[in-house]
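[agent] plan:
  1. take the single chain provided in the ticket
  2. run structure prediction with default settings
  3. attach structure tokens to the ticket
  4. add a short note for the reviewer (M.T.)
[agent] executing step 1
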Amino acid sequence: MFIDMSRGRLTLSPASGDLSAAQVSQLHFWGFAKGSDGNYLEPPDSSESRLLKIVSYCERENIPFTLSQESQEYLSRLQRKQIAFETMKQSARDYKEGRLDITKFKEFVNCLQRSVPRKLKDHQIKAAYHLCLLGNAANFSVPGSGKTAVILTAYNKFKTEGRVNFLFVIGPPSCFSPWITEFELTLGRKPQHKILAGGSLQERKSFYYSNVSDQTELILITYQTLNNDIDSIIRFFNQRGAFPFLVIDEAHYIKQSDGQWAKAALALSKSTDYKCVLTGTPLPRSYTDIFNLFDFLYPESCPIDEDAKIRIRINEDRKNISDIRESLNQAIGPLFYRVRKCDLGLIPPVFHDPVELPMNRHEGTIYRAIESKIRDYTKNDYLSNIELINILWRGRMMRLRQSVSNAKLLVSAIENYREELIDRHSELYDLICNYDKLEKPAKLQYLVQLATTFRKQKLKAIVWSHFVGTLKLITECLSDNGFYCKMIYGATPVEQTGMEIEETREQIRREFLDPSSGLDLLVANPAACGESISLHKTCFHAVYYDLSYNCGQYLQSLDRIHRVGGSETNQAHYHFLQYTNTIEQDIKNNLERKAQKMYEIIDEDYSIYSLDMTEEDEDFEAYKRLFLANHD
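[agent] step 2 finished; step 3 output follows
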């Protein structure tokens, strides 16, 4: 067989009798197409390692072959790259297993002490050394471990050595402000930064097409903007004098192999030599979720090659988990660093026993009526249409959760839920509509007392609720009682929108963290404030006014006040307000069981573990547990 690269793509020209039927089938499996001339042409999206695979296959199958001059030169380059990659990978494996060059490590630490003003924790120094050792690596450390400071430390070293000259971060908008803040705290200088999100396409293009020497040091971009502008960004990366360090924050967003965001990130990855992916949840749903992360980091070397991916998919279907873990450990074990919660040296937080309160008269009447209605409706449910039943049960559970949060929420619409649980011509409906004129919720009254205690002790606190209407109720009540508080929820603009009339989330957060600002109470929902917002430097108390069954959001909210950089010396406190003999006890118990399971799983390197899950079935399962367990 003659192997040629002269036409820009790998072409295989077999002589008569060179290939058996099985070997032809293997070429087709790899995507080679047979042309009218009898030659086999590789697929257009092939990786550079395809030639290595073909040569290895021919040698293994005893297929005679010769290489064109172009193919021989190309193969030599690939082999040199492969040897360099394997050598680097072995160095990283030795490091993770404790076989390190002490002299070089001490030199690295001394370099950090001279050039990085921030005093890093031991686990951060070790993670930064791992990244500098590889140049391209993943950091799968738990939320709150200080991953941003690790990347900034490595970036500073690369920049000092002339290997990179700007940092390009892809992530959700909520991560932008922390990157800007952490840059100054870690490196001791304010970064000239540019946020690429929304706004004018023409303005963004003028930035991409300007001279890189005039560009800023820190560039932040959303996944959506990356996807929209990918061609211009690739050109920006490839211009003369551009040496980017490319980072993907919250990298689980590119886990889908056929997703547009993933395709854009993979296309860009080939335009830089230095990359890093960050996520505390590398395997949110499946072992295949990790494929894109390492394809992004090593587009040429493919540590998890196609054959390995197929084996992993088959083993996952067969539930051969130990085989999967062994495959992943061999392929990518040295290429990522992971810090566990137990490694952080934080003071264990205090989970105060829930404060269980009897409902006030009218809210108790409303809750019991809603619960009774649901039980009555359940008697007439039939499982012939499981999709409809699913919608009804979720909607009813939402109503029940609303009734222990803020009775007025019961008159608001729920998306996709059209059941008339409350008759609009009933006394119950009138009671709900006029509830705020009749009494204050018992939890709200207790919250005012608790806030008074915090104020006397000069403590800041965040109050969590899952409902916007409740957030507004809490904020209004606290303000009416003389407390200075502000609210963050989905409609609160983020920093990059450039809105001048409304305060951004980051402006509110900065004011809240300022010990002398007077803003000592923050009211927020986990969906808007549970990711990428750190409060742990001055806030040590969190009050849960209500809870949902979403354990992922719950754990993220816990981490807002229990993180590296404050929780080593200040203990986090969690307070829970609940109504006696209601759904709230089931929610809390369910969260505790799932949280314990997640904390056990997170200590393992290759386990399915998600903090970003929607948990759509949790309300459904809770409904069955609460309303069907004793139902004939």
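[agent] step 4 note for reviewer: The chain has three domains: 2-77, 100-342, 350-632.
[agent] ticket updated
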